[in-house]
């Protein structure tokens, strides 16, 4: 039976891709099962090519479910819908549209760009730190600013499920750190507590630990779930938490789980007798 507050149910999920070149179907996820509650921020990590993006795009309704359950609010996901927003690695902004027009885009497409919609866009411009840049075009924005616009655009339609696929991986290390802090701040200020859920795919274990309430570790492909690790670090979080012993311990533990998938001979931390990492 589902946990009563489960927003997202993933049950024995199989996903894959059909290649017209080889005329073959290859599995990307095989037997994935876990659940995500309302208000949770879940990060997904795992070896390169294991199926993380496939899973996220299936949540967006862009990859069909081969078998199993993939349910949002009790309904099987069977295609894209306005209750979900996807943020990609590369900010996919419209070059001919200003910052404001880019953020308004989804609302306009849904015919919701009324006074309330415009007020929400103005609020988001402030929230993502782009006040004063409303009339600027994407070519004049830095990578970090572009991802701020992308994030605001994803939030503007008030999605139930926010899907983020390595949104900061194209940024330089310093901007990436700033954006991680910004995202936690925005999540806390604007989204947390409103029954929404975020799924964040990343290669970067410290980023996952910093942002998430729980981290789902995928096996090497085709992915199944290795473990979901609770991140019991206090919120609100800022960069200082990365220097805490609790953060380091969680980071090492999850890194060990991922490495055990890429190097099968390597023992994961859980082999040493502790399935629950101690949080300092
Ligand atoms: N459109 C596609 N057609 C055929 N195969 C695909 C397609 N997209 C992904 N795959 C294959 O599915 C598997 C999972 O890929 P996916 O991109 O989901 O992994 P990932 O964990 O996100 O990878 P990375 O960490 O490197 O970004 C890989 O073997 C990949 O080659």
From TrEMBL:
<protein>
    <submittedName>
        <fullName>ABC transporter ATP-binding protein</fullName>
    </submittedName>
</protein>
<dbReference type="InterPro" id="IPR003593">
    <property type="entry name" value="AAA+_ATPase"/>
</dbReference>
<keyword id="KW-0067">ATP-binding</keyword>
<keyword id="KW-0547">Nucleotide-binding</keyword>
<dbReference type="GO" id="GO:0005524">
    <property type="term" value="F:ATP binding"/>
</dbReference>
<dbReference type="InterPro" id="IPR027417">
    <property type="entry name" value="P-loop_NTPase"/>
</dbReference>
<feature type="domain" description="ABC transporter">
    <location>
        <begin position="13"/>
        <end position="245"/>
    </location>
</feature>
<dbReference type="InterPro" id="IPR050166">
    <property type="entry name" value="ABC_transporter_ATP-bind"/>
</dbReference>
<dbReference type="InterPro" id="IPR017871">
    <property type="entry name" value="ABC_transporter-like_CS"/>
</dbReference>
<dbReference type="Pfam" id="PF00005">
    <property type="entry name" value="ABC_tran"/>
</dbReference>
<dbReference type="InterPro" id="IPR003439">
    <property type="entry name" value="ABC_transporter-like_ATP-bd"/>
</dbReference>
<keyword id="KW-0813">Transport</keyword>
């Amino acid at each position: 039976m589902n946990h009563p507050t489960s927003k997202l149910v993933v049950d024995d999920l199989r996903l894959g891709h059909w290649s017209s070149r080889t005329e073959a179907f290859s599995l990307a996820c095989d037997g994935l099962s876990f659940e995500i509650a309302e208000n949770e921020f879940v990060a997904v990590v795992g070896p390169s090519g294991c199926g993380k993006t496939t899973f996220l795009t299936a949540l967006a309704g862009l990859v069909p479910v081969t078998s199993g359950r993939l349910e949002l609010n009790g309904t099987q996901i069977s295609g894209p819908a306005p209750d979900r927003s996807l943020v990609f690695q590369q900010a996919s902004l419209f070059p001919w549209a200003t910052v404001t027009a880019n953020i308004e885009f989804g609302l306009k497409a849904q015919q919701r760009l009324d006074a309330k919609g415009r007020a929400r866009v103005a609020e988001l411009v402030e929230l993502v730190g782009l006040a004063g840049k409303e009339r600027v075009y994407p070519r004049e924005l830095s990578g970090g600013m572009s991802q701020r616009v992308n994030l605001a655009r994803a939030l503007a339609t008030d999605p139930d499920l926010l899907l983020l696929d390595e949104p900061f991986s194209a940024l330089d290390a310093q901007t990436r750190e700033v954006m991680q802090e910004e995202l936690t701040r925005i999540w806390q200020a604007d989204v947390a507590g409103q029954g929404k859920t975020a799924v964040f795919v990343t290669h970067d274990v410290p980023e996952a630990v910093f942002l998430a309430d729980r981290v789902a570790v995928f096996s090497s492909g085709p992915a199944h779930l290795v473990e979901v690790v609770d991140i019991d670090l206090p919120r609100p979080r800022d960069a200082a938490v990365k220097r805490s012993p609790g953060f380091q311990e969680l980071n090492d533990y999850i890194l060990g789980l991922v490495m055990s998938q890429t190097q099968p001979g390597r023992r994961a931390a859980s082999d040493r007798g502790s399935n629950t990492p101690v949080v300092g």
